[in-house]
Amino acid sequence: MHFWIGVENFAKIESAKICVDNYTVLVGENNSGKTFLMQLVQGVGKKIVNLIDETIMNEFLIEETELYKHYLISDKNVSKITSFINEKLMVEKEHIIKEIFGKDITIGSLYVDISMDEKKVYDLVILDSKGFDKKNLLEVVNTLNLDISIVDAMGKFPVTELSKLGICIVNKKNKETKESKAISIDVRSNDKDTILFCDGLRSIMEPKSLFLPAARTGLMLLYREFFANKADNERSFTLIDGHIVGNRETYGDLTQPMYEFLRFLQTYYKEEIRVIYKDELEFFEGHLIEGHISMNKQGAFSYNSKNENGTVPMYLASSMINEVAPLALAITSRNRYQRMIIDEVEASLHPQKQLELVRFFNRLNNKGMSLIVSTHSDTFVSKLNNLYILSEQVKKNGEGILKQFNLEKEDLIETERLFVYEFVNQPNGKSVVKEMKGNSKTGYQFDLFTDSAMHLYEEATKLGEMQE
Q1: How many CB atoms lie within 10 A of CB 154?
Q2: CATH 3.40.50.300 in the chain, residues?
Q3: Distance in angstroms (rounded) separating the CA atoms of residues 175 and 240
Q4: What predicted TM-score, i.e. pTM, was given to this entire model?
Q5: Residue 2 near residue 22, CB atoms below 8 Å
Q6: Chain segment 189-233, per-residue pLDDT in tens
Q7: Which of 30, 151, 223, 403 could in theory staple to 262 by disulfide, Cβ–Cβ 3.0 to 4.6 A?
Q8: Are 155 and 132 in contact (CB under 8 A)?
């Protein structure tokens, strides 16, 4: 399943539609709307499933027995979800914008586009209490050709009062290979089908996402001060028609995604057992920060350099360390983030480190981490472009050519999953977001950076001529 989010007449953006669940790169001039759009994606992603109600569920119900209800989502019916969500978004868009940004921002339309590979389907199975029995569960699994590991996984849940629980199983299948894989098993003290159905959809449609704002150095150093001076459960109230209403959590002068990033830093806890990004973390520590980030018992972060003895608090570490440290925290967090949205990825990085950052991002994406990044760096996009071309060449000529560039296959890009968008400012003060298409031989043509390079070249030429 693939997702796009689109807007029209939103803040400075006249029109935009970007992919939000693969590997997306945003380029463009300052003040063109990139940060606004990235925060919108972060905020909207958490609200889409909440728009679902029982009126749409029956569109996907294909079988009901005394043991289970079987819902199926495929390329044949996914458009129904898309249409339903978009109808809701048209009604709720102003409210959603205000929740995310804390103020009214003009928006003409807000919509999603969802597509699915015709070879794949999602089974969403809601079990009746009778189905919790291992024998019955095995019968359901075999009947629906679900992932057999579900049976063992269910045995690990500390289920005591089964009749009060609801269980939703989400299973992903490949219709050609018959491969079946359980991607989510949700057990909760609720037997409402609507809630369980939405839980299942959430595992498919809402990747756990973290927005990393620009100026991360300042936020890394001051987030504790922010919460020391603000009650986390601050509430706001409004007087309407003589009555006090509201009781809504506020974020101070921050947007919701910015506030969530500070909360992430404040509540960070490392998941010691997580190994999925072990190799990527080693690459990050060896090639980018040349050391590692740690946290003491008081929750303060520090940096330990592999070239120097001792540990220093983050306020004594370089701005480069502070800028990229949240990347390591995100992939080691117990929150298990599936997507990172990173504003101005190159901030405070020397060009050589930017080259390594591209390799790190490629490796993360190859492991399944979705990325949305913005950049103003010609170095970053040039390296990305080179690896795009090299990835296409490897498809034709094999991995042997990698040795010539001192690279590994993990540095390559799944080119069909890379989406590049350029924000182009218009004479009317608005911007239009255009998707750029890559070429297997030349990659992407970044006119914005080419024009700057040509200007400097022509300027240098004139200065040289003056010396003659």
Answers
A1: 21
A2: 22-29+209-461
A3: 55
A4: 0.89
A5: yes
A6: 666 788 888 888 888 888 899 999 998 888 887 777 766 665 444
A7: 223
A8: no
